[in-house]
What does this fold into?
Amino acid sequence: MDVIQQMNAHSCASAGPAPTPDPASARASNWGGGMSESSASLQGEYIDLARFLKSVLNSLVRTTNDILKSQEVTLSLCHPLRVLVDEGALTVSVLAARLDMNNSSLCRLLDRLEDRGLCARTRSKIDRRVVTVEISTDGRRIVRGLSGALHQADKAHLAGMTSQEQASLRAMLSKMMENGTRMAHSSVAGGESPSDDND
It folds into this structure.
């Protein structure tokens, strides 16, 4: 699984307790410029994970899109295609659920993909409300090229890390995803509506 999937979107052994952070180093790095020194001092050892991880994700997406320019596609356009390759033809509602999108947003994406001949939608003859999406041959070709782009983006962002550090990173991201999934299930079980904020 690529890093973008793990961050958007399975575990290894714990790497042990985290080392005590060096205050001087923390001030110097300021999480890659994403947090001011005053904010860091106010928060102490607290990490603004949402802001930090989103910054990394944005960089990964930007790098991947730069690599994909030659194919005139973006990562957001490729997400539905990847799911269709993995799972086969799906209804619009099921595909939207897989991508954690609402139907209207997905339909706009599918309009662009269909215009380029990368997928096709078919309305059921039995129930006209049901629309099935299927990837085309050109769509599969795009997905094959995407794998190389994702690998290049991952490699660039993991530069300087040892194999053990990379394994630990993936393990920690997987654990965070598991925790988030568990909390979401608990909220639904408790009667709370899941947030629709994708920002």
